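Quick one:
INPUT:
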């Protein structure tokens, strides 16, 4: 019936549907007697393609002037709630996208299989869900709450029984026991028959967090994220679809599931992973959580030792309740932080670790303790330089220097992943002689093995975590003390709790300062503070070594003192003077094309349209930080405004037109 066309005059009911990634909303006929309503999942045929799933946005009796095909309900009969529909449409509007592009992000890749599983469940009871990850030894005998934790919990529990929007920032130093407060809060929420969504920034945190909550609550925790196996994804999503899920734990995309939570917890809320990058819409999990809580009534808990400035300012202004945990739950002091000025360190050329860090690391391992070393640079060496003309070797497809990876015995582009032979001739002079300049994490791994006796190093970066389950395996083996040194990029800084870690070293701490991003200083402070917070969590004696060429940078000094309030005050003052968020809304418009002349003409045309709107301050156009990626040139425009409605009015017709505004030019929009 899906393929049949019918005279619209013979039908009494019609439906408009969202088809993932389609250019517009389409109208279909409703078969006589079919139970189709807003939110229904239906089969439709678009042009000559195979039947596909679509979501009904509206059912009406307005006869179109053209013949239509039928829409047929999916065999499962599933209907999304009005809350889900409104959420999808709000994200589309707020982030200047279309419901069809948004639906492509909201629906998981195997959604049709999940509906088939739901249909099968109606025929026979569902068996036990598969495990969400490797088993971990979790202590059931949790320590009693500290006084600070008791006070914070009492305030949160009080909010559980209220109606409407309730928002709280739980600002606790690293190791202050925020997760312990979450556990008690979820237990109290379940007593009141409330549903809880727990969000973490990284997939690697889900096994540890799920185990903690399941062990304490003695109820199943449904895990949702992209790296699960197919059976795990199906079982998790099925529990949400059939309504059996009471506690859902996941990464960013879990908030898009049809789980009508009463409480949502964003742990490490400052983390940039909570913001979608590609594809559009480029939503922020925190904004959607706030919207749903305000629209439908819910408690939002944001937890962090280093909250983002927007959140901190909202809390200081009274828009969010501010709860503070100033001390570590174990009564252990915050670690001693030492900044090492690498400009003054005399050592062998090319050696990455200072003598002080080498000695401290050796003593730590000799004492039977563990250490975390962070270097936020993948590969073995940062650049390859021609010894004849001094030219740096760039990727042919991207305007970015190639990085030598000893693991692959090749030069790699970190933007398009292209590999080049190490001995590629210099494109400028043709010379085949070269040298590597600037060490990276693979070289640091070699150095640790060379200098530290009994070092058992496990590395965690993008190159070692490509396979499904690799992150969990690495973290579990380190937690089980199979290794005594965890060496990694910024992945190692995110919320991990390793009681055996007494030493943290940060090599090349100032590498993020050169990025032209108004958040770069904030992100550097967060990285330093979060990484330092992994040391000495279970007892005294935690030490942190920060190696830098810029020891007098204010951000370094605030990190030494664990002074978030001082950092936030200084950074907020700088942002206010420059009129950056949180004192305005910043919209970043990225335009890309393979035709550089067409790109420049299009950007200039767009700029002239934007400058006609008096409520906007338009900056640019400027080349992107990496101006060419995969043979596509990129140019950016920025808008500072207090009036996002005016921005949407101008950009929505351009971004959501059925055909590209200018053929051959891609336009991306991000709201900061």
């Amino acid at each position: 019936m899906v393929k049949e066309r019918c005279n619209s005059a013979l039908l009494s009911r019609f439906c408009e549907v969202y088809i993932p990634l389609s250019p517009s909303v389409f109208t279909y006929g409703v078969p006589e007697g079919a139970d189709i309503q807003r939110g229904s999942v239906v089969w439709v045929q678009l042009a000559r393609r195979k039947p596909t799933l679509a979501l009904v946005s509206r059912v009406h009796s307005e006869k179109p002037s053209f013949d239509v095909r039928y829409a047929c309900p999916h065999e499962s009969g599933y209907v999304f709630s009005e809350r889900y529909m409104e959420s999808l449409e709000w994200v589309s509007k707020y982030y200047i996208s279309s419901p069809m592009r948004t639906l492509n992000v909201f629906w998981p890749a195997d959604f049709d299989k999940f509906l088939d599983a739901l249909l099968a469940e109606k025929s026979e009871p569902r068996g036990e869900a598969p495990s969400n990850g490797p088993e971990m030894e979790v202590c059931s005998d949790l320590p009693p709450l500290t006084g600070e934790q008791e006070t914070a919990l009492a305030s949160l529990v009080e909010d559980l029984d209220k109606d409407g929007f309730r928002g709280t920032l739980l600002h606790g130093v690293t190791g202050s026991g925020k997760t312990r407060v979450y556990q008690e809060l979820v237990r109290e929420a379940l007593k009141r028959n409330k549903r809880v969504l727990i969000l973490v920034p990284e997939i690697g945190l889900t096994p540890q967090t799920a185990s903690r909550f399941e062990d304490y609550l003695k109820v199943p925790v449904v895990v949702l994220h992209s790296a699960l196996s197919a059976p795990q994804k199906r079982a998790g999503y099925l529990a949400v679809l059939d309504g059996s899920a009471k506690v859902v734990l996941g990464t960013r995309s879990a908030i898009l599931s049809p789980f009508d939570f009463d409480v949502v917890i964003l742990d490490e809320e400052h983390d940039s992973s909570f913001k979608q990058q590609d594809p559009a819409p480029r939503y922020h999990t925190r904004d959607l959580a706030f919207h749903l809580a305000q629209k439908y009534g819910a408690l939002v808990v944001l937890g962090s030792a280093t909250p983002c400035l927007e959140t901190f300012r909202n809390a200081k202004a009274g828009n969010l309740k501010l709860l503070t945990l100033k001390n570590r739950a174990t009564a252990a002091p915050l670690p001693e932080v030492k900044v090492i000025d690498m400009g003054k360190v005399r050592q062998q050329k090319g050696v990455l670790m200072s003598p002080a860090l080498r000695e401290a690391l050796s003593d730590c391992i000799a004492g039977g303790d563990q250490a975390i070393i962070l270097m936020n640079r993948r590969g073995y060496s940062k650049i390859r330089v021609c010894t004849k003309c001094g030219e740096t070797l760039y990727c042919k497809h991207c305007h970015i220097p190639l990085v030598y990876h000893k693991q692959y015995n090749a030069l790699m582009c970190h933007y398009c992943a292209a590999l080049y032979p190490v001995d590629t001739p210099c494109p400028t002079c043709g010379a085949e002689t070269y040298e590597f300049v600037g060490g990276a994490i693979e070289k640091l791994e070699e150095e640790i093995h060379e200098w530290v006796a009994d070092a058992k190093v496990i590395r965690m970066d993008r190159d070692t975590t490509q396979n499904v389950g690799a992150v969990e395996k690495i973290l579990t083996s380190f937690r089980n003390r199979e290794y005594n040194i965890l060496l990694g990029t910024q992945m190692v800084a995110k919320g991990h709790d390793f009681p055996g870690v007494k030493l943290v070293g940060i090599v090349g701490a100032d590498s993020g300062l050169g990025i032209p991003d108004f958040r770069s200083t904030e992100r550097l402070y967060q990285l330093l503070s979060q990484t330092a917070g992994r040391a000495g969590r279970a007892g005294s004696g935690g030490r942190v070594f920060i190696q830098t060429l810029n020891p007098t940078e204010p951000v370094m000094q605030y990190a030494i003192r664990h002074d978030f309030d001082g950092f936030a005050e200084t950074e907020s003052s700088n942002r206010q003077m420059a009129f950056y968020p949180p004192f305005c809304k910043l919209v970043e418009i990225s335009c890309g094309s393979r035709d550089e002349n067409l790109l420049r003409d299009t950007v200039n045309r767009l700029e002239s349209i934007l400058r006609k709107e008096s409520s906007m301050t338009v900056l640019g156009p400027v080349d992107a930080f990496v101006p060419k990626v995969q043979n596509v040139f990129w140019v950016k425009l920025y808008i500072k405004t207090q009036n996002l409605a005016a921005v949407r009015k101008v950009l929505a017709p351009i971004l959501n037109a059925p055909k590209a505004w200018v053929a051959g030019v891609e336009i991306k929009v991000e709201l900061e």
